[in-house]
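Database export, one record per block. Field names are fixed; values are copied verbatim from the stored entry.
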Amino acid sequence: MVVVRLGERMEVKNIVGASLLAAGGSLAVYGFLNLITSYINLGIAGMFLGAVVLTFKSSEYVKKDAIRLVLSSYGRFSNSFVDNLRLEGNAVYIPPFENLPEGGVFVPLHEDFELDLARIDEETVFLTEIPNDRAMGLFLGPLGIELVKKYEEHLEYSLAGTGPGEVEATAGSVLKALGLAGRVYIEEVENGFRVILQPTIPCDAGTCEKMPCPVCSSVLLALARATGELIHVEKVEEKDYGIEISARKLGGVEEWM
């Protein structure tokens, strides 16, 4: 019988976590330098998973302060990325269509923006070579898509055409089971949504308006898929009861082609 001591388990955990962080960081930088969206997304996902692995104290307990310290580098990277590119607009979540089979997240260059979805596909990173600078911006790909797939596995059918109630129920169940959030609440308001999340991992409200964390992104991406409409983040605020997101519906894909 093989006995694995606690110290040995912790050492393996540290090796795995550090490896994920290093590999994720390398992929993100390589993707950024070579304009490869898939590498950027894989890199961000790897960094996120590495940070989570490093902060597990046991299979049932996560020390939130430790997670905050480890993920602070991700927050700094995101803020620096947004500042250096001078992105003024907040994230727009795009439902799946022919060019983007899994949807995606677009961050406009300007606060007063337009969208030209016909020019965006899975290979797009920076949308700049267009005559209208109000349509320029950064395409992040379907950030959070792996969690969206988990939502649909839980439902055993696609979220497409279901509505916000289905997103609230399935995202709440899956994120709670994964230990990523304690609650998900979605309220339809005039021409938009009010979304409340209680993430168990750090979420920088200011950063999530433009460069969302995987949890916030997955819920809003699922909402775009379920409603068939583009979802524009207007404001993300940290409240006593969690993270509150105000989002506006922008209509279907055909309106922006």
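Remark 1: DSSP finds seven helices and eight strands in the chain.
Remark 2: Confidence is low (pLDDT under 50) at residues 1-13, 55-63.
End of record.
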